[in-house]
Write a structure and sequence with these properties.
inorganic pyrophosphatase (n-terminal core), 2 domains, 351 residues, alpha/beta, Diaminopimelate Epimerase, Chain A, domain 1, binds guanosine-5'-monophosphate, single chain, 13 helices, globular, 12 strands, binds manganese (II) ion
């Protein structure tokens, strides 16, 4: 049995919102990752099995290596299919917000205002710090490794301890796996492995899910990774790595959404590197992805410098109206401000 960490009363309040709704939209953060796609699809399957009309609406496209997930092809992408997305949101009598904590994480295509302005009820199920209080019921547990882990726990309460069906299980496993780097970080809670055992009993093939997500890249993506690692900058005195990729560099490798997924984690395998930054030029902004090891708080770096946030060891933000190299320089210049944290991690290395 897993330890019950989710407040039962709260879970039942959420269930009550669902019972009273017939037409439900489920959404997650912009640039959806495995946890965003997995948790929304898992909820969609769960609600459909209850006889509810359930639609997943995501702010923009998700990587092709999640297309194998059951239900993925029915996802409505707001950026590409605005009219259908807005109709779905306006018709819904409940919107479930998963894997994000503030409306602005719904992207820059106008989706935050559309969701904010609907009169319908809202439910948040999330694992990021400091949830914005816009939902009628907020289930927020930042200590959980993924929104999918949290969702499994919530569903356990709803199901009176019974497990979930195989489609729900596949989607939940995907998010748990991707948000922990295939259980290599943020994954010391023994409950995670009890949950995996239950998901396997529910019928998932975890090895196949791993292959579908991690062995599904193009040759161009691997060549881009080689290039990124070649140009990687290491700043030894701060145990820091910085990789930048301009639009032109991405285009040289026929960049497709999701191709750079995981790049930011790689420098952390280098001895003495415990803070890694990956800066990518997107259409109108520079996307900053940050990762750390140990107690180095990359979410503080994200919020103080790039208007973002996230978790202690995985965070991100954005820079607007700035050149890629200027953002990188701003990050280099900011490093001394975090000297105290760097020194602590350095001291651990010396042991
Ligand atoms: P990634 O680097 O994979 O895009 O994001 C890692 C984590 O950082 C996300 O799960 C999310 O918690 C957080 N994050 C990334 N970008 C942003 C952002 O622009 N704003 C905020 N608040 N959090 C972000
Ligand atoms: Mn997540």
């Amino acid at each position: 049995m897993i330890t019950q960490k989710v407040d039962k009363v709260l879970a039942l309040q959420a269930k009550d919102l669902i019972m009273k709704a017939n037409d439900i939209v489920i959404t997650a953060h912009v640039s959806p990752d495995g946890d965003a796609v997995g948790s929304t699809l898992a909820m969609c399957h769960y609600l459909s099995a209850m006889g509810k009309k359930a639609t997943v609406v995501l702010p923009n496209a998700f990587p092709a290596f999640f297309k194998w997930m059951p239900g993925a092809r029915e996802i409505v992408v707001f950026k590409d299919n605005r009219r259908n997305a807005i109709n779905a949101i306006n018709q819904a009598d409940l919107i479930i917000c998963q894997d994000f904590n503030e409306l602005k994480r719904l992207g820059e295509e106008g989706m935050p205002a559309v969701v904010r302005d609907t009169k319908c009820k809202k439910l948040m199920i999330d694992h990021h710090l400091n949830p914005e209080p816009f939902a009628d019921v907020t289930i927020s547990y930042p200590q959980m490794s993924s929104a999918c882990e949290l969702l499994y726990r919530v569903m356990q309460i709803w199901n009176g301890g019974l497990s979930v069906d195989v489609n729900v299980a596949m989607c939940i496993y995907t998010g748990m796996m991707t948000d922990t780097g295939a259980f290599s970080y943020n994954s010391n809670d023994p409950d995670i492995y009890y949950i995996i055992a239950e998901l396997i009993k529910a019928g998932i093939d975890k090895d196949e899910i791993h292959r579908n997500v991690f062995n599904n890249y193009t040759a161009d993506r691997y060549r881009m990774m080689g290039y990124a690692l070649t140009k990687m900058e290491i700043i030894p005195e701060y145990g820091t790595s910085i990789i930048t990729m301009s639009r032109a560099e991405l285009n040289n490798f026929n960049y497709r959404k999701g191709d750079t997924e995981g790049f930011v984690n790689m420098p952390l395998s280098i001895k003495g590197v415990f803070f890694s930054a990956f800066l990518k030029e997107e259409d109108n902004l520079i996307k900053v992805s940050l990762r750390s090891q140990g107690d180095f708080p990359c979410n503080i770096v994200a919020s103080e410098n790039f208007g973002g946030g996230g978790h202690l060891n995985a965070s991100g933000g954005e820079a607007h109206g700035e050149q890629l190299e200027d953002v990188a320089q701003r990050l280099r210049d900011a490093l001394p401000r975090y000297k105290e944290y760097f020194d602590k991690e350095m001291a651990k290395l010396a042991d």
